[in-house]
Design a protein that fits this description.
Largest sheet of chain A: 8 strands, mixed
CATH class of the largest domain in chain B: Alpha Beta
Oligomer: heterodimer
Helix content of chain A: 55-70%
Largest interface: A-B, 49 and 52 residues
Number of domains of chain B: 2
Number of strands of chain B: 8
Structural class of chain A: alpha/beta
Order of helices and strands of chain A: HHHHEHEHEHEHEHEHEEHHHHHHHHHHH
Low-confidence stretches of chain A: 305-312, 345-361, 435-450
Radius of gyration of chain A: 29 Å
Largest sheet of chain B: 8 strands, mixed
CATH superfamily of the largest domain in chain B: P-loop containing nucleotide triphosphate hydrolases
Bound molecules: guanosine-5'-triphosphate, magnesium ion
Number of helices of chain B: 11
Shape of chain A: elongated
CATH class of the largest domain in chain A: Alpha Beta
CATH topology of the largest domain in chain B: Rossmann fold
Helix content of chain B: 40-55%
Mean pLDDT of chain A: 81
Chain lengths: 450, 305
């Protein structure tokens, strides 16, 4: 059902009997799953390796909090380590602390999004930072590249250095800087041609330009969809040009964005912005937390873990799960299961925090498992006698009428409840296979017929 | 000359081309766990993805584990396995003579190389003395029309265009009609880059296809998705959603002149069974090559061909 990391980790730890501290073996087993998950998210292999070592150190000997499974525990450790590696919770800012005109240069592979990002940055600096901005394109390679920047400049009402001046990128950059000084601009943004990191000639050229104009920021723009190559690209650009920050474009897609992590680690510089669309205002600050969640594909699992550890009563859970394991599941079990979900903030909000929740949410909606109907269900079960709860077969027409009356529902509602209970019971066999831990983690959502 | 050799002879560009992980394990004799691990790492770093990689490595393990084998044999084994997976999908670039013009729609995510690939295809076919026409269907991105027009001028290929912001579907319609009147051999229609997750833009693309059909029932005859070789595992979703929207008839992978190996193509071929028409290996008009399964596979495992 879920294909996410926490699911897999649950699988790993389901086999685990004991609790206490995380052992070497537990952690290794978990790390194998983490490795696969990170690779599937396109994190570069050398980075995955480094990171795994780091996580192992952190996880070993860590005490497992009661009411949180070892699987969840490791996920939290991984998550926190990832957030930290991505730069922590405060977004990085542009460094503009230099004498005007402050030069910012954008570099990167072909088609990465440099020109678009250049214009977005110009708009950001103009609108949000009240700066006088000029843009200049040094791209003498790609057909209509400079025209592209000029048109964008027009759209956002930012001046661009005229097209017909200068021939080589070096030449253009020098002239543009001179003009920016002369006309009193605060910032000069330089767009450059796309180039391969292994193209010695073009890499040399951009390094030369950098020497000439001494930019305060040299930003490497990269596509969020990039795979394993991201590490290599970041490494070579850092070594041969020198970059001060990263910008990830096309984060509006559904790529998991492992490239962000790879490049951050390899280049050793912060991610300053992300691009989230083709329009000029679709540039956002980078939030490590969000990207970490995206890379791990885990929704807000950490919040979930925290909430769960507060409100799940361990004993209660153990009790139900034991009965479930034995294949027993009566209406009072259903009741406590439902109540527990409610304690944790209602079905919907719980689902919203879980990875891969979309499908489940739909299933729940179809099955009428919204928060309101849950309250109704609880009311109906509460109107039953203990005997009825334990042995729902007792419920004949007159008993059903009594329950309906007692809970303010209709007999149809009671029948619907019984049908749902029946569906759940038939799922028991499957849950026996899943084992206790899996059951607890999936809670009621795992009981839905699909 | 194979494209790899051509690259090597391209001097400076390839001078730093990465040496691969396999050479470092050259001295190993017996196929043991460590070697398998190194091989697995190599394939992962070529973007093959974890499941295709473990599939291929398992095969190697079953066939050759614990046997005395030299590194070349291992490489050949892997390359052959990958070649076999790709081979059914190799399809040469040909214009179907039954249509005048053959109408080709080029689609893909932003910046993958669509417009440049159109120029390359134009160059390729003009060398075969075909009459070609371009349609500047990217009416959205700044200077996208100008970009294609410059290519048209360089290659002496006429370009049908409208202003920026014009309706792309209407332009495509006009282009088809005009190209039919001119009895061209091929009409190449550019489209704006779009992320597969943007449903509005995917709807727009469907509309372009529908409108082309109105002008010519049998068209578009080819719908080619242009994929950037640097792409990682997200390529699966790209292909899936574009395919569902407009029915792809094949793929072209660009930017294989970098260090990205484009290994995701192996899994894509297998899953979607789409022909691979060509690869892009540079920014110039003649930097297009037929897709060769064995060359590509060799490059994935770091074999010189
Ligand atoms: N969806 C989306 N598209 C983007 C984003 N950033 C850029 N693009 C698009 O990506 C394509 C390439 O962008 P450019 O800015 O031309 O890229 P470039 O790096 O300047 O390209 P070259 O100069 O050819 O190397 C265009 O279609 C842009 O509209 C983004 O954040 N999201
Ligand atoms: N190195 C290399 N660069 C390429 C290749 N194909 C295209 N490019 C470059 O990639 C960049 C983007 O190419 P375009 O053809 O504009 O891409 P596109 O898909 O039309 O972009 P949008 O229309 O903005 O979505 C340009 O700088 C091209 O020169 C290739 O095979 N190798
Ligand atoms: Mg550009
Ligand atoms: Mg284009």
């Amino acid at each position: 059902m879920f294909n996410s990391l926490s699911e897999k980790l649950n699988g790993v730890f389901d086999k685990l009997r004991k609790r206490g501290t995380l052992s070497d073996k537990d952690v290794d087993a978990a790390l194998r799953e983490i490795r696969v998950a990170l690779l599937e998210a396109d994190v570069a292999l050398p980075v995955v390796r480094e990171f795994s070592k780091n996580v192992k150190e952190k996880a070993l000997g860590e005490e497992v909090i009661r009411s949180v499974t070892p699987g969840q525990m490791v996920v939290k450790i991984v998550h926190d380590a990832l957030v930290e590696a991505l730069g922590g919770d405060k977004p990085a800012e542009l460094d503009l602390a230099a004498r005007a005109p402050v030069v910012i240069m954008l570099v990167g592979l072909q088609g990465a999004g440099k020109t678009t990002t250049c214009a977005k940055l110009a708009k950001f600096l103009k609108d949000k930072k009240n700066k006088q901005v000029m843009m200049a394109s040094l791209d003498v390679q790609r057909p209509a590249a400079r025209e592209q920047l000029r048109v964008l400049g027009e759209q956002i009402a930012v001046d661009t250095f005229p097209l017909d001046k200068g021939k080589t990128p070096e030449d253009i950059s020098k002239r543009a800087l001179k003009e920016a000084k002369l006309k009193g601009y605060d910032i000069l943004l330089l767009d450059t041609a796309g180039r391969l990191h292994i193209d010695d000639k073009l890499m040399g050229e951009v390094a030369q330009v950098k020497k000439e104009v001494n930019p305060q920021e040299t930003l490497l723009v990269a596509d969020a969809m990039t795979g394993q190559d991201a590490a290599q690209v970041a490494k070579v650009f850092q070594e041969s040009v020198g970059v001060t920050g990263l910008i990830l474009s096309r984060m509006d897609g559904d790529a998991r964005g492992g490239a962000a992590f790879s490049m951050r680690m390899v280049a050793g510089v912060p991610i300053k912005f992300i691009g989230v669309g083709e329009k000029m205002d679709q540039l956002e600050a980078f939030h490590a937390e969000r990207i970490a969640n995206r890379i791990l594909d885990m929704g807000d699992i950490v919040t979930l873990v925290e909430k769960a550890s507060q409100s799940i009563s361990e004993e209660e859970t153990e009790k139900i799960s034991k009965r479930m394991e034995e294949g027993k599941f009566d209406l009072s079990d259903m009741q406590s299961q439902i109540m527990q979900m409610n304690k944790m903030g209602g079905m919907k909000s719980l689902m919203g925090m879980m990875p891969g929740m979309g499908k489940i949410k739909n299933k729940l909606d179809q099955a009428g498992f919204d928060d309101k109907s849950i309250n109704h269900q609880v009311a109906m079960i509460q109107s039953m006698t203990q005997k009825e709860k334990r042995k729902p077969a007792l419920l004949n027409a007159s008993r059903k009428r009594r329950i309906a009356k007692g809970s303010g529902r209709s007999v149809q509602d009671v029948n619907k409840l019984l049908k749902q209970w029946k569906d759940m019971s038939t799922m028991m066999k499957k849950f026996k296979k899943l084992g206790k831990k899996g059951l607890l983690r999936q809670g009621i959502s795992g009981l839905m017929p699909r | 000359m194979s494209w790899l050799k051509r690259l090597k002879s391209g001097l400076s560009k390839s001078s730093k081309k990465l040496s691969d992980g396999l050479t470092s394990i050259l001295h190993l004799r017996k196929l043991d766990e460590e070697t398998l691990q190194n091989l697995e790492d190599l394939l992962i770093q070529s973007d093959l993805g974890t499941s295709v990689t473990s599939d291929v490595i398992e095969k190697l393990r079953v066939d050759k584990f614990d046997t005395q084998i030299n590194i070349d044999e291992i490489k050949y084994f892997l390359a052959k396995e990958l070649t076999n997976r790709l081979k059914p999908y190799v399809k040469p670039l040909e214009i179907n003579k039954n249509f005048r013009p053959e109408i080709i729609l080029i689609v893909g995510v932003n910046g993958s190389g669509k417009t440049t690939t159109i120029a390359k295809l134009g160059d390729f076919w003009s060398k075969e003395k075909k009459s070609i026409r371009f349609a500047a269907g990217d009416t959205f991105r700044a200077a996208a029309v100008e970009q294609l027009c410059i290519w048209g001028k360089r290659l002496d290929i006429p370009v049908i265009k409208r202003g920026s912001g014009a309706d792309a579907a209407a332009l495509a319609y006009d282009a088809v009609i005009e190209s039919q009147i001119e009895k061209d051999d091929v009409l190449l229609i550019d489209t704006a880059g779009r992320l597969h997750t943007n449903s509005n833009l995917m709807e727009e693309l469907k509309k372009i296809k529908r409108v082309i059909k109105k002008a010519e029932e049998t068209a578009p005859h080819k719908v080619i998705l242009v994929l950037d070789a640097t792409v990682g595992q997200n390529a699966y979703k790209q292909v899936e959603i574009f395919h569902k929207a407009v029915g792809l008839t094949g793929l072209i992978m660009t930017k294989l002149d970098g260090t990205a190996k484009g290994g995701v193509l192996v899994g894509l071929a297998d899953r979607f069974k789409l022909p691979i028409f060509a690869i892009g290996i540079g920014e110039k008009a003649n930097d297009l090559q037929q897709f060769e399964a064995s060359d590509f596979a060799n490059s994935l495992v770091g074999l010189e061909s």
